[in-house]
Amino acid sequence: MSISPNIPNPQESYHYDSGGGTPRWITILFAIVVAAIGALAYAGHSVQTRLEQELSKAEDQNKILTAQLEQANTRLADLKGQMDVTSQKIGMTQAELADARSRAEAIRKQQTASDAKLTAQIAQTQKESEEKIGAVATDVSGAKKDIEATRSDLEATKSKLERATGDMGVMSGLIARNHDDLEELKRRGDRNYYEFTLQKSKTPQRVGPVQLKLDKTDQKKSKYTVTVLADDKSIEKKDKTAGEPVQFYVKGSSRLAPYEIVVFDVNKNQITGYLATPKEGGSPAASPAPAKQ
Fold it and tell me: What is the CA radius of gyration of the chain?
């Protein structure tokens, strides 16, 4: 079998390529492998980076959840403590309420017993009072006439004691023996009354519409001497006694109603009493002698 001289020998061609350099397909295959390895490395790096980021986020989230859990545990512990305290207080309050109810019931029973006892005492007292009132009413109706008779006698005696004949022989008005009696006379308003306390002095003292000057006192005998200055003249009333109506006249006064001086007390250097003047002639002109108020 003859071979055409134009067709190359395969063995010769193979040996030629192997001796001339690396085949192209190997280079391409190597490049593809390297590219694949690079792609895989990049993909692995990306996956690792993403995993690290997710792990970091998971750790942060875990920290947040841990802090929240700790806060929740703290709140739970506080709430439990408050619940324990509240439970103790509720237990104490219930005990106190029970004690209060017990005391209230005891007080109510005591009050009921006291009310019953007081009601019985009131009824007994009322009964005794009615019996006494009935007895007193009987006595009062029998003694009323005696009281009226006694009152009439007392009024007559009082009238005799409160009137006296003055040093000028004229029956006086009602006589006051002290300050309280004088206040009663003032309330009646029958005459004008001027109370005074007169000191022993050379200067006269104005008393109502006149002036009086105390000249002498005798405390042991309750006597005194006084000078009356009225109508530009002086009238000496000598050795007069406490309680005696000392009478004198001034211009315009009635002969039946003279001015009267009545002395309550006679001391060592002073006298206390009052001047009584008639209503219609109670303010005549006084003496111009200097007055000591």
Answer: 69
Total-model pTM? 0.44
The string of pLDDT tens digits covering residues 232-252 is: 889 999 999 998 999 999 887
Residue 70, C-beta contacts closer than 8 angstroms, at least 6 positions apart? none
> How far apart, in whole angstroms, are the C-alpha atoms of residue 93 and residue 98?
8
Strand order in the sheet with 223-230: 205-207, 210-218, 223-230, 233-241
Helix (H, G, I), strand (E, B) or coil at 185: helix
What does the pLDDT look like over 268-285, one tens digit per residue?
999 999 999 998 644 443
Which residues have a Cβ under 8 Å from the Cβ of 175 and sit 6 or more positions away?
162, 163, 164, 181, 243, 245, 262
Q: Which residues is 266 bridged to in the sheet?
A: 271
Domain boundaries, the chain: 24-142, 179-277
